[in-house]
Amino acid sequence: MSLTFRARIPEREVEAEFELGQGRTLGITGPNGAGKSTILGVLAGLLIPASGRGTVGGRVLFDLDDAGRGTWVPPHRRGVTLMAQRPLLFPHLTVLENVAFAPRSRGLGRSAARDKAMQWLEDLSATRFADRRPEALSGGQAQRVALARALAAEPEVLLLDEPLAPVDAGGKTELRELLVRVLAGRTAVVVSHDPQDVGELAQEVLELGGR
Ligand SMILES: Nc1ncnc2c1ncn2[C@@H]1O[C@H](COP(=O)(O)OP(=O)(O)OP(=O)(O)O)[C@@H](O)[C@H]1O
């Protein structure tokens, strides 16, 4: 799905605009505090902008005039999934249950949701962690599981906030290759302060200035 975005968040001194074609990845880069995570928050519906408009495949996510009046669709009805900077896995659930959570909340039965979760874990070479709790995963392993969970939600747009940050140098190459494969043909926005990551993962770049 194609994506359009224009928003003003004055309390954070953030203002941005972009368009992204179907199946393409936008990389957002810029220094600390430039507003990268804020833009993802607005797209995911975690943050209400003062004004602006966002659409996915022509469907409105938010459309707010200068007085802040208009349409604002809540996060769970956007078809947009955010993989946050920290994996934020549910600590009391196993890896498999974490990944099965999204299909379950979309109404799939317990065993169908587990099958779907297992398929995503397989796709990301993470089946061996299925029965573990998140606390028993390394940073890179947790990131892989968080990615499986985001994909299991079958989003129309995938948002990734610094996906390579919690991984050490050795794991970075592997996770980067995995991300390149996952992002191929998918409409996605990836935030990173690392130009190399943006260059390898994204076809389009939005560079935010610092203040
Ligand atoms: N929860 C919050 N409440 C209020 N202001 C915030 C909050 N989070 C961020 N900000 C402010 O909003 C502005 C944009 O921050 P944001 O986190 O979007 O930047 P970023 O480019 O993602 O930075 P980083 O690379 O450090 O993650 C900054 O001035 C920041 O101080």
UniProtKB/TrEMBL annotation:
The keyword Plastid does not apply. Residues 1-210 form the ABC transporter domain. PANTHER family: ABC TRANSPORTER I FAMILY MEMBER 10 (PTHR43514), SULFATE_THIOSULFATE IMPORT ATP-BINDING PROTEIN CYSA (PTHR43514:SF1). Keywords: ATP-binding, Nucleotide-binding. InterPro entries: AAA+_ATPase, ABC_transporter-like_ATP-bd, ABC_transporter-like_CS, Molybdenum_import_ModC, P-loop_NTPase. Gene3D superfamilies: P-loop containing nucleotide triphosphate hydrolases (3.40.50.300). One of its GO terms (molecular function) is ATP binding. It comes from the Bacteria. Pfam families: ABC_tran. Signal peptide: none annotated. This is ATP-binding cassette domain-containing protein.
